[in-house]
Task: structure prediction
Amino acid sequence: MKTRSQLLKGVLEGCILAIIREEPAYGYELSVKLHEHGLTNISEGSIYPILLRLQKEHLIEGHMQPSPSGPRRKYYHLTDAGHEALANFAEHWNTIKGPVDSIIKGGREQ
Amino acid sequence: MKTRSQLLKGVLEGCILAIIREEPAYGYELSVKLHEHGLTNISEGSIYPILLRLQKEHLIEGHMQPSPSGPRRKYYHLTDAGHEALANFAEHWNTIKGPVDSIIKGGREQ
DNA sequence: GTTGGTATCTTGTTAAACAAGGTAGGTGGG
DNA sequence: CCCACCTACCTTGTTTAACAAGATACCAAC
Result:
């Protein structure tokens, strides 16, 4: 179903920023949390590239930390620019969500 | 602002299907209607490619018709497959909208 | 020592929005 | 008559993102 993956464009990035805002998280954890929130089947092949991109844009910063069990984890936290970007994203999301809902539900002309 | 144009990915296609479902429309008209609904700054360079794509996928059909004033218009209407695709899109949209809202608003762990 | 879960990252493919630009019909003003 | 303007169509090239697939590796338990 590629409709879904098109709908996720740009959305995932914002969601990841939002989750990290709550508390620092590592990649693998993000895939679990997104799933728990209802965004199922988000593969790691989507998440890691986003994390690298966000890091390159200085919206997040990461540092390795040992795990109580298993390989080391790279925890990411938001930068100031990251908080701004998230606010910006939330605003865009809100200006799109309303119109799209009203159009899809239909029936309203003019 | 490219965040916005990423967020529109996949969304515009569904919106166009939804508007055409209400009544047949032509390209130029769609750009006006989207704007009226709150989706501003959608250029014709976005709309016409979508219409061509939808037509190629047999979700819509178009036919030329004279205009009371100005060049001829190409009115599009939904096919059966188009109705299905729209229902499908609406479903996907609904499964994404809720989770994204809850993640952005934040505060909920586990 | 090998299996399996946790964890990271990379490459290549595909698909979509949009800017920019090109074509042309009709109408009204000069 | 012709020229400018609005309506209306379509195309090309650029950029960006999700994702599948796969590579790597640590650790624990058996």
Q: What stands out?
A: Residues 2, 5-6, 8-10, 12-13, 42-46, 49-50, 53, 67, 69-72 of chain A lie near DNA strand D (CB under 10 Å from a C1'). Residues 80-105 of chain A form the longest helix (26 residues). Chain A touches chain B through 42 residues (CB under 8 Å).
